[in-house]
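WARN retry 2 of 3 for item q-0093 after timeout on previous attempt; input resubmitted unchanged.
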Amino acid sequence: MIKVDLITGFLGSGKTTFIRKYASYLVEKGMKVGIIENDFGAINVDMVMLSDLDSEMCDVEQIVGGNVEADWKRRFKAKLIAMAMQGLKRVVVEPSGIYDVDAFFDVLYEEPVSNWYEPGNIFTIVDARVEDDLSKQARYLMASQIANAGAIIFSKAQEAAPEQIQESIKRLNGMLEEFHSNRTLTDEVITKPWNELTPEDYERLLNCGWHSADHEKLWFDHNDAFTSLFFMNVHMTAEVIKGTVEKLFADEKCGQILRVKGFFQQADGRWIEINATKDSFSMKTIEQAQEVVIVIGQGLVEEEIRIYFQKKRDSEGYDKQSGNHISRDT
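OK item q-0093 returned
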């Protein structure tokens, strides 16, 4: 049987970065691995971030769209069936950050998928500095994910003080209690910085399994609660990008922005990848991409956000946008 590992975590928690490390470890062990990537939104930016892992020993696949649970389950099932005869030892699945874990088990226990696959591990990636002002829907999604996780892995732990880490664990347990889960987190929380993880740590993760913990279900339409807006052909210099993103997060007129990610081509032909939440910002040079920016959040105000990407402010590094396009994912 092929084991399937699920990597959950809220928007911007660091799931894609962790998958890079975890999949690389599996390949180093001689395992042939499949990765199934499904981002929240019409354009799968995270798939681009994983594309360099694609090799003879690591097959990177994507599920396009599928923000509606029924669509995601149908496409996930079809992808697993298509990959069943590739000689894979393990499949690693990264769904979107607004994912309900029940859908994962629904597909794996359904024939014919259940003839080839079985659940392996469930990891939940959590920013080590858990925010105290998350909406009820966001708290529910985090609670439902950590309730089933065999391991909760803190990201950016090196940026958090020990007291912040303890406060984050307390907040996570508070979310479990809020939705009447019968689970309390203890030693399954991994707080070590990722660059310090040892082969022994990865072996622990490889065998952590998952939990069957109850929790109260909160019924809501994920697509009504969370919105994905994308902007094509945004030209912006590296010097301006970070300041613009910081202004977006600070501007209450834009709504509650949870994550900004995308790619910008520079005048010298270089491509820059950005990935940002309210508390973190990363930028790096990559080989090639598609010029797009995706903004994800709750109660987003399309007109206000568009201003930041359509202004002509050449002195600050903007280019005039003649054909900029914005769409709401539905």
